[in-house]
Amino acid sequence: MKIALLIFGLVISPVLMAKDYFVGEITSQQIMSDFKRFKKHADDVNYTKQQLAALAQIEDDIQIKVFFGQWCHDSQREVPRLIQLFDKLNKDNFDVWYYALNGRKSDPQNQAEQHEIRRTPTIIVYRDGKEIARVLEFPEKDWPSDLSKILML
Q1: N or C: which end of the chain has fewer CB within 10 A?
Q2: DSSP element (H, E) containing 148
Q3: What is the pLDDT of residues 83-106, one digit of tens each?
Q4: pTM of the model
Q5: Quick one: 4 exposed, middle or buried, by C-beta within 10 A (0-12, 13-18, 19+)?
Q6: How big is the CA angle at 150 (ends 144 and 151), to the nearest 5 degrees?
Q7: Interacting residues of 22 by C-beta distance below 8 A, sequence separation 6+
Q8: Is the preceding peptide bond at 121 cis, omega within 30 degrees of 0?
Q9: Which residues, including other chains, have CB under 8 Å from residue 28's CB and lie 6 or more apart?
């Protein structure tokens, strides 16, 4: 009987405890309005014009893909910081896409698999459609500095 209860608990309890997380492409506005744990980090940083100056000078077409997990504490902290950065930067040549992943780090469009995502968040930076860098989980210094360094190469 104890073994049956143990097996029942191991098999059924994860299913009962599973959370419904959004998975797939999502906008920055949806992230900040719908994800409570992300909202609490909305004002963690306040980027200055000086911090944004180098990025503001970039004229190339830049694409950034942000793969994250709603369940991931690094994503909950870093994605709002990225959203704030790109909102303040407000440059048309920066196209940013957000993809929410499930706990297995996958998504319905198979974007995570195609991009070999292993950690969240993973930020992939493209210039003119070619991947030039990845940032895994968090920046070395801060987002404006790290992205400026990447894009100035």
Answers
A1: N
A2: helix 143-151
A3: 999 999 999 999 999 999 999 998
A4: 0.85
A5: exposed
A6: 85
A7: 34, 35, 70, 100
A8: yes
A9: 83, 86, 87, 96, 98
Closest CA to 65 of 22, 20, 126: 126
* Single-letter amino acid code for the residue at 107: D
Strand order through the sheet with 24-26: 24-26, 94-101, 62-69, 122-127, 130-136
14-68 pLDDT per residue, tens: 333 346 899 999 999 999 999 999 999 998 999 999 999 999 999 999 999 999 9
Q: DSSP string spanning 57-113?
A: T--S-EEEEEEEETT-HHHHHHHHHHHHHHHHH--TTEEEEEEEE-TTS--TT-HHH
Q: Count Cα atoms within 13 angstroms, Cβ side, for 87.
A: 15
